[in-house]
Each structure stands twice: as structure tokens, then as C-alpha cells.
Write a structure and sequence with these properties.
Layout lengths: L23 E5 L23 H11 L3 E5 L9 H10 L3 E5 L7 H10 L1 E7 L10 H12 L4 E5 L5 H11 L3 E3 L14 H12 L3 E4 L3 H4 L10 H10 L4 E2 L16 H5 L2 H4 L3 H17 L2
Parallel strand pairs: 1-2, 2-3, 3-4, 4-5, 5-6, 6-7, 7-8
Bound molecules: (1E,3Z)-4-hydroxybuta-1,3-diene-1,2,4-tricarboxylic acid.
The site of (1E,3Z)-4-hydroxybuta-1,3-diene-1,2,4-tricarboxylic acid has 12 residues, from loops.
Length: about 290
Amino acid sequence: MDPDYLPFHANPSKPTFRAPVGAVDAHCHVFGPADKFPYHPKRKYTPCDASKQQLFALRDYLGFSRNVIVQASCHGTDNAALIDALQTAGSLARGVAVVDPEISMQALEAMHIAGVRAVRFNFVKRLVDSTPREVFLGIAEKIRKLDWHIVVYFEAPDLEDLIPFLKQLNTTIVVDHMGRPDIAKGVEHEEFQRFINLMAENENIWTKVSCPERLTLTPPDYSDVVPFARTLVERFPDRVLWGTDWPHPNMKSHTPDDGQLVDVIPLIAPTEELQRKLLIDNPMRLYWES
Ligand code: 0GY
């Protein structure tokens, strides 16, 4: 583990908010354990191990039913830890993989059987070396045959440049963490409005209203992020997902309390109907009904 790496919370609080039965944590990771699933040699950070057993225990503790497990950059394109977790969880988890452009259809089909339903394209420069867009387009073509979608991770200043590429993908796209808006600039700033307009104009684009702990300017008080997430939930109730982001890689400001993160949900999705769409209907449609 890196010397400045903050491990996940050892004793998160029990959330006050009771998630509806069947709720999905649609963004979380498993890391290692390194002795069984080594981290990638070209990784940009070395996390603390965060096992499938710990993830599933947290799921139950927080009152959730299912997980969507996302391959993180520290495991590169070796999806073994992810696949192992999916095989243990069976129908209770689905996965998002990161793959090499040369991957065979046979390998992709095996991943599909294990529960993978998407690939992730990461554009965050501190996490990955850049990948040429033609390479991503090649992967997009391959996975089209399996009816998977594409999860993209980028930061708000990079969106303008990425828009033509996102349009080229021509499939369902899920944007991680609301496109990482700069909270200091506010909801009305052109950067966040650009993201809202992108979703308004492209019905194939979804987003995760996740990661107040990464975006807030006032940790561990997440209220400054609420207007951003709530705007998206109310405007696009059928295209939003929510996740813990456990075990919260690369946090620098504080160690998030997962129970406190769950308690943000009723602030961003204030009605039972919005909560049901966010936590059940939308993730089930995207990850379980295909
Ligand atoms: C997240 C966020 C981060 C890390 C990764 O793939 C990754 O390593 O996504 C981050 O550092 O912002 O979604 O887990």
C-alpha cells in the first residue's frame, strides 16, 4: 500500500436511510488480495487490499442487495479479482471490465457468463496512461455484439474535447461520478451545464450520482455536492445510478464513512419513486435485464 494511501473505514456507521429492498450499489471495487490477485505492474497507486468478502459484508450492513463491481486501474486489464468476486456473488453482482484491444470474442463471452456487462474507458490522467481513441472505438465495436455498454471516467474540463468521441460510441454510456464537476463553480456554471445538456440531447447517456466524498470542498460534510446530484436525479430520473465507490481509492482529504454516504441518498432523491428508480429500476434494467 502507498505510504499516503488512506484505507477504507473500519467501522462505518449504520445509515439512517433504509434503502428499498433490492437496492444496488452500482459502483464499487475489489482490490486483491495482492497475494492472490497481484496489482498491475504499471498501476499509478497501490491500494490496501479490499476483498470480495469485505465488500459483500458491507453490502449487507448498509442494507443493500446487489453490487456492480468496477475494474479499477490498479488491476490494469487483468480482471481476475473482479471475475472471482462475480463468480462468488452469482446473480447478486454484475461487473464492469477493463480490456485490451486484442481480447478475443471467446474471452469476452466468458466474461459475460461471469456477469460482466460493460467495459470502462478511463480518461483520468492521474490514473492511466492515455489510450488512443481508435483503440477505444475498436473495443466498442467488439462489445457491441454482446450488447454491453461503456462506462467512462473523465474530469469536467475534459468533457468538451470528449463530446465528439462519446457521440461516436453510439451505444449506452454511463459517466462516472457526474463527470466530476468542480463544486466551487456551481451548478449553473457552463461546465456542469455542458454535462446536463449532453444528457438532455443524448438519451443513451446515463450517469452515476456518486462520489460526494471526492467532490466536496467541505469534507466530511457533503451538502455542497447535493444540488449537483439532485439536479441530475430530478432531470433524468431513468438514467441515474448510485454507488458507494467503496473502498474509495485515492482519497486524500478524509476517510469516507459509508453509512454517511448512504444517508446522502434521500437528499439527492427525495421521493420514494426517485429512490426506487435510482437504486433498483435503473441498475436492474442496465445490468440484470440484458
Ligand atoms: C473510482 C475513482 C478513482 C479510481 C479509479 O480505476 C481507478 O483506479 O476509478 C479515483 O481515484 O478517482 O471510481 O474508483
